[in-house]
Write a structure and sequence with these properties.
There is one protein chain. The protein is α+β, with helices and mostly antiparallel strands. It has 2 domains: 18-169 and 229-318, BirA Bifunctional Protein, domain 2, CATH 3.30.930; 330-427, Anticodon-binding domain (Rossmann fold, 3-Layer(aba) Sandwich). It has 15 helices and 16 strands. The chain has helices at residues 18-36, 49-56, 61-66, 86-95, 139-156, 171-187, 194-202, 216-220, 231-246, 291-294, 309-318, 340-352, 370-379, 390-394, 418-427, and strands at 39-40, 46-48, 68-71, 78-81, 104-113, 125-134, 162-167, 252-253, 265-272, 281-287, 302-308, 330-333, 357-359, 384-387, 397-402, 411-414. Helix 1 runs antiparallel to helix 5 (139-156). The longest helix has 19 residues, at 18-36. The two termini are 49 Å apart. Bound molecules: adenosine-5'-triphosphate and magnesium ion (MG).
Length: 428
């Protein structure tokens, strides 16, 4: 036998019944997007490497150490498995001039790739839902995307998710803050770790994002960007807050919330839970008015977020909010192989009428004994067995045997009239 192969470390197979829960969540997401007017986009999983280097910023965790980058051996192109969704969507929007007639509201669902240390809530292939509202400058859209996430939590039944927000202001405001930050960290150089020392002059704001516990006190006392925000930035932030207040959504202003990518400005936010240990951020995003121009488009504002599907499912699991697997409504028992054509005609009609039916698959030796078939029918979780016995078939009928209710009696229904009785099975 050939040696068995394994999936790449940090990349998981999503198998039944778990995959059913993924579909359930994705259905909820799609329904949400429809109601807010967000349309689906599907962009490639592989993009030119410069897209991310330029878009995310060279001095970011992702670009410095997390990207799956490779050279296409056929033509020497530098390619990268997408580590996040925004850059690719923006590339597509620019490439296809999607903003020529105004704004666009888009969403995606799909895999992302980051070379991180695999642990709970942190994988090398993980999945995100993302929304991007492009071409709209106002705080109304910032509030809209934040509230979309809140609606999703509510519809999933999640109550223990907090909102943190901050404003990163505009580039010139960040520059003033940066100067203050660099002098502060320079004055405390002996307390900086290696990462921070390296970033001190390339990207000091990133130091605020440090997860090193030894640096927390230093970071907490650092100069705040908030103190450098101008009037327009403050007005934008206040307008977002006014909407959150109006709908009764509590939030905490977290001055240390700077997000992992360089492209953000003005509003940034995260949805956080305490129930997932260190990987508590289930959704994060913000405004990125500079990115479209950076990627070669005509300048246009934008705002969006990315949500980690694995983390949301983990949280739902802990809160016991995931639905049980849905068994088939009916299981078709086939006493005799010769009956198969009639059986299939019947169950095809039932499926067309919306009933889920699992056909007993017997293999080359025939369907097998009734006893073994009923055992399978039971194990399938189906509510009914459809029994196609010789007597029933001869009189144009199928027997319906309730499997979950011992007191219920077996009955028969007419073949050829499935549409008339399918609803009985569905609503039993
Ligand atoms: P973290 O600080 O946890 O590394 P991040 O700031 O890098 O998160 P984003 O790039 O904002 O994360 O991605 C949006 C969301 O995607 C995160 O809030 C999280 O829920 C999820 N996510 C990010 N990286 C991973 C990963 N490696 N595995 C699973 N989910 C992830
Ligand atoms: Mg990260």
């Amino acid at each position: 036998m050939a040696e068995p192969l394994q999936a790449v470390k940090g990349m998981n197979d999503i198998l039944p019944p778990e995959s059913g829960r993924w579909e359930w969540l994705e259905d909820k997401v799609r329904s949400l997007m429809r109601r807010y007017g967000y349309q689906n986009v599907r962009v490639p999983i592989v993009e030119p490497t410069p897209l991310f280097v330029r878009g995310l910023g060279e001095v970011t965790d992702i670009v410095e150490k997390e990207m799956y980058s490779f050279i296409d051996s056929m033509n020497g192109d530098a390619l990268t498995l997408r580590p996040e969704g925004t850059a690719g969507v923006v590339r597509a929007v620019v490439e296809h001039s999607l903003l020529y007639d105004g704004g666009k509201r888009l969403y995606y669902i799909g895999p992302m790739f980051r070379h991180e240390k695999p642990q709970r809530g942190r994988y090398r292939q993980f999945h995100q839902v993302g929304v991007e509202a492009l071409g709209h400058a106002g705080p109304d859209v910032d509030a809209e995307v934040i509230l979309m996430a809140r609606t999703l939590w509510r519809e999933l039944g999640l109550t223990d998710v907090r909102l943190e927000i901050n404003s990163l202001g505009q580039p010139d405001e960040r520059k003033a803050h940066r100067t203050a930050l660099v002098s502060y960290f320079e004055a405390h150089a002996e307390q900086l770790d290696a990462d921070a020392r390296r970033r001190l002059h390339s990207n000091p704001l990133r130091i605020l994002d440090s997860k090193n516990p030894a640096m927390q006190a230093l970071v907490d006392a650092a100069p705040r960007l908030f103190e450098h925000l101008g009037e327009a930035s403050l007005r934008h932030f206040d307008a977002v807050r006014a909407v959150l207040d109006a709908v009764g959504q509590p939030y905490r202003i977290n001055p240390r919330l700077v997000r992992g990518m360089d492209y953000y400005n003005l509003t940034v936010f995260e949805w956080v839970t305490d129930r997932l240990g260190a990987q508590g951020t289930i959704c994060g995003g913000g405004r990125y008015d500079g990115l479209i121009e950076l990627i070669g488009g005509k300048p246009a504002p934008a705002v969006g977020w990315g949500m980690g599907i694995e983390r949301v499912l983990d949280l739902l699991q802990q809160e016991q909010l995931l639905p049980a697997a849905t068994p088939p409504v009916a299981y078709a028992v086939v006493p005799d192989a010769g009956a198969l054509p009639q059986v299939v005609v019947c169950i095809e009609a039932l499926r067309a009428a919306g009933v889920s039916v699992l056909l007993h698959a017997g293999g080359n030796a025939g369907p097998g004994s009734m006893k073994s078939q009923f055992k399978r029918a039971d194990a399938s979780g189906a509510r009914f067995a459809l029994v196609f016995g010789a007597d029933e078939l001869a009189s144009g009928q199928v027997a319906i045997k309730p499997l979950r209710d011992a007191a219920a009696a077996q009955s028969t229904r007419a073949l050829g009239a499935e549409a008339a009785w399918a609803a009985e099975l569905l609503h039993a």
